[in-house]
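Bug #2210: token dump truncated for 4Fe-4S ferredoxin-type domain-containing protein?
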Amino acid sequence: MADPAEPTAPVAVTSSCTACGACLLTCPEHALRPQGGHLAVLGDRCTGCLECVEICPADAIAVLDE
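Reproduced locally. Full output below:
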């Protein structure tokens, strides 16, 4: 369960992720981190630039509706 004090990121990594690392290298804010065998988006760092969405070869990063 997410900490209510932590901001929600505008994107989320889906189960389609192949852990290729392209998003980790692309994110200018370093908002994507390996966590427990998958990738997590840090809401307090993500600015919503969507570079990760554009670079992901598996289309595994979803833009969340506000």
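Output looks complete on our side. The mean pLDDT is 90. Marking as cannot-reproduce; reopen if the truncation happens again.
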